[in-house]
Amino acid sequence: MEIIVWLALIIFFVVLEIATVGLTSIWLAGGSLAGLICAAFGMGITGQIIVFAAVSFVLLYFTRPWALKYLKPHLVKTNYEEAVGKNVCVTEQIDNVRGTGTAVMNGLEWTARSVDDEKTFEPGMIVMVKEIKGVTLYVTESSDMPQMNGDK
Length: 152
Hints:
Elements: H1 2-20, H2 25-40, H3 45-71, E1 87-95, E2 100-105, E3 108-114, E4 120-121, E5 126-133, E6 136-141
Parallel strand pairs: 3-6
Antiparallel strand pairs: 1-2, 1-4, 1-5, 2-3, 5-6
Helix pairs in contact: 1-2, 2-3
């Protein structure tokens, strides 16, 4: 009976791994295999559970970092976090009410919106990136912002 339970657990953890591809439950399938082997050799249920837990922990702790490093695709980091606090130039009027606005950052044009719905920014103004949500820059006034009211 115990062998059937261990087989069912192996199948469950393998199917779960296939469904999630998180490189987590596959290690539990390895622990279940160790429990199955112990059951086949007549070890008691307490020993089987201890072996299952120990093998699962060892596999998870020691081999998961290696597997994540070498088996998962290498993701390209965009470093967009570095844009927060940078000054950008408005290329199209930023008006949240109208839903318009673009700004150039590092030579690339981004959709831009004001942090404050009451504020609008005209083309040519320098604004500061306060946050990024998706592909939209949320901007606010910058200390480097040129005066647009004609004062010299």
